[in-house]
Amino acid sequence: MNFIRNQLENAGMTDPMTFYISNVIMILFIALLCILANLITKKVVLNAVIRIVKSNRYHWDDIIVEKRVFHKLSHLVPAIIIYLFAPVFPVYQSLIEKLSAAYMILATIVVLNALMDAFEAIYRSFEISKIRPIKGYIQVMKIVLFIIGGIVLISSLIGQNPLIILSGLGALSAVLMLIFKDSILGLVAGIQLSSNDMVRVGDWIEMPNYNADGDVIDITLNTVKVMNFDKTITMIPSYALISDSFRNWRSMQLSGGRRIKRSIRIDTSSIGFCTDEMIEEFKKIHYLSDYLTNRLTEIEEYNLKHNINRESRVNGRQLTNVGVFREYIRQYLTHHPGIHQDMTLIVRQLAPEETGLPLEIYAFSSDTSWVAYESLQADIFDHIFAVAPTFGLRIFQNPTGYDIARLKESAAAAGVEAENV
């Protein structure tokens, strides 16, 4: 500044004009220096850093560049230059230093915020992030960063110790608790969810209270985002997963088997003992030939041992069509490639009802994906419905219009025959 003033005085300028022009020249010089430093930082230093990052084999530094951490850090350079040149303007030195310091604090907050985003993105690149998500903790750290940064920024502008402002916040603790109630509850819930491994990103969960039925796609401080199977998004408060019940299908997916539990209804009027002709036909069925041979031998030995009177089919032990049908289904499922053979496989009768005798299949598919599971289940029951008449059984269903029309036709045909007689 003194050099500029001396040069202006040597050029013949008076004192007031020298003061103003020297200040303008110094401001332009500082502005030019800031622009030049900013250009050097971004065009030279940043490009060199980016080239170094791209050329190495590490992936985490690429994420830092993508989050523009270094770009935001470069904003500190002009502020530092302005702060260092503040003594050149003694009258405004204090104001310039405060504003420069406030800008540097704000830029530091932005840099740290971007650095946290980069850290979260780096963490998400590891498989453990699905088991132990940290997005909620990062959000808590951001809240703390913004609060502390705001206090330091205000204290820098008013020239007070930050501890004085922090001591005054004690009186506002109740208000802060009310404002950040959801965040505090979400933080506690996030810790419990993570420590107990209750839910992960990618889990299929069901929560009827919130109409949620789909995959977890994000876990934040306050909410758990679920993409339902109809592609809608349900936002569930994090603490609701602690206070309310929900179903997590992860263990089913990890087990490698998905349960099939469905019944068919047998018309009880079609159930009866097997005749010799039926048994001969059943022996032609691949899955039943060995079973029938062993079973008939066992029944014959039992009846002979106990001197059973064979003149009545009621006496002794006999094969029934529904029993043979049940064994056929079991053998069919045992040999089916889509059924998990290391898990429970049962074909059982349930209590008879007015809709017939329920014959329930309880098994597990070897493919847990939804499409494959539904296709397998449909194929199995298609086959069962189709082969039931082979065993002399009828599947129960309530009368339909077709049944009523067929009865009318039968009645009309019977009437015509009676008139002819």
TrEMBL record:
Under InterPro entries, the record lists:
LSM_dom_sf (IPR010920), MscS_beta-dom_sf (IPR023408), MscS_channel_2nd (IPR006685), YbdG (IPR030192)
Print the keywords alphabetically. Answer: Membrane, Transmembrane, Transmembrane helix
Compartments reported by the entry: Membrane
- Residues crossing the lipid bilayer are 20-41, 76-95, 101-119, 140-158, 164-191
**Which residues belong to any copy of the Mechanosensitive ion channel MscS domain?**
182-250
Coiled-coil parts of chain: none
* Main localization category: membrane
Q: Name one Pfam family in it.
A: MS_channel_2nd
| PANTHER family with a match to the protein in the record | MINICONDUCTANCE MECHANOSENSITIVE CHANNEL YBDG (PTHR30414)
Q: What is this protein called?
A: Membrane protein
Q: What is the lineage of its organism?
A: Bacteria, Bacillati, Bacillota, Bacilli, Bacillales
